């Protein structure tokens, strides 16, 4: 496995939590393919917002141990906005479309439009 890094969106985490056969989830495949997986602090919030009972909360806590959690700051928010503008200009996404986009020397990103972020791989 190369030193490949990825930031995953909450939808991928939710899919994993809901699947009975975890090995068939996209997250399972990504764990096999990438040496480093991170999630944003927004994903942490979204997961706990959906953890409606003790077992679901426990499952979220166990899952979170697999990832680095990336805080959002002004620099990242600005970068996300610029990436979104660029993608819209090039007609690469619609409002609710999922995207898969690669940036040289950066994370591979899979996200809902609202969560699009590219983080420098040196972070």
Question: What can you tell me about this protein's structure?
Answer:
The protein is of the alpha/beta class and 123 residues long. The chain has one domain (5-115): 3-Layer(aba) Sandwich (Rossmann fold), CATH 3.40.50.1010. Helices cover 44% and strands 16% of the residues. It has helices at 10-18, 26-33, 41-50, 54-64, 74-89, and strands at 5-8, 36-40, 68-70, 99-102, 108-111. A five-stranded mixed β-sheet has the order 3-2-1-5-4. A hairpin with a 5-residue loop joins strand 4 and strand 5. Helix 3 (41-50) runs antiparallel to helix 4 (54-64). The radius of gyration is 15 Å and the shape is globular.
Features:
Rossmann fold, 123 residues, alpha/beta, 5 strands, globular, disordered C terminus, 5-stranded mixed beta sheet, 44% helix
Summary?
It contains 5 helices and 5 strands, in the order E-H-H-E-H-H-E-H-E-E. The chain has 123 residues and is of the alpha/beta class.
Helix and strand topology:
Layout: E1 5-8, H1 10-18, H2 26-33, E2 36-40, H3 41-50, H4 54-64, E3 68-70, H5 74-89, E4 99-102, E5 108-111
Parallel strand pairs: 1-2, 1-5, 2-3
Antiparallel strand pairs: 4-5
Helix pairs in contact: 3-4
Q: What do we call the CATH homologous superfamily?
A: 5'-nuclease
Helix content: 40-55%
- What is the CATH third-level topology name? Rossmann fold
What is the straight-line distance between the termini? Answer: 20 Å
Name the poorly predicted regions.
95-123
Q: What is the mean pLDDT?
A: 75
Main sheet overview: 5 strands, mixed
If strands are numbered along the chain, what order do they take across the biggest sheet?
A: 3-2-1-5-4
Instruction: Tell me the series of helices and strands, N- to C-terminal.
Output: EHHEHHEHEE
Beta-strand percentage range:
15-25%
> Shape, please?
globular
């Amino acid at each position: 496995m190369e030193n490949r890094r990825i930031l995953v969106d909450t939808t991928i985490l939710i899919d994993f939590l809901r699947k009975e056969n975890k090995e068939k989830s996209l997250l399972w495949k990504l764990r096999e393919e990438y040496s480093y997986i991170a999630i944003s602090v927004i994903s942490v919030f979204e997961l706990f917002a959906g953890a409606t009972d003790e077992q679901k909360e426990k499952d979220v806590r166990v899952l979170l141990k697999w990832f680095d959690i990336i805080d959002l700051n002004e620099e990242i928010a600005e970068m996300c906005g610029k990436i979104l503008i660029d993608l819209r200009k090039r007609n690469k996404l619609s409002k609710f479309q999922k995207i898969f986009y690669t940036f040289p020397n950066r994370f591979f990103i899979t996200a809902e439009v609202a969560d699009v972020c590219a983080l420098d791989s040196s972070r």
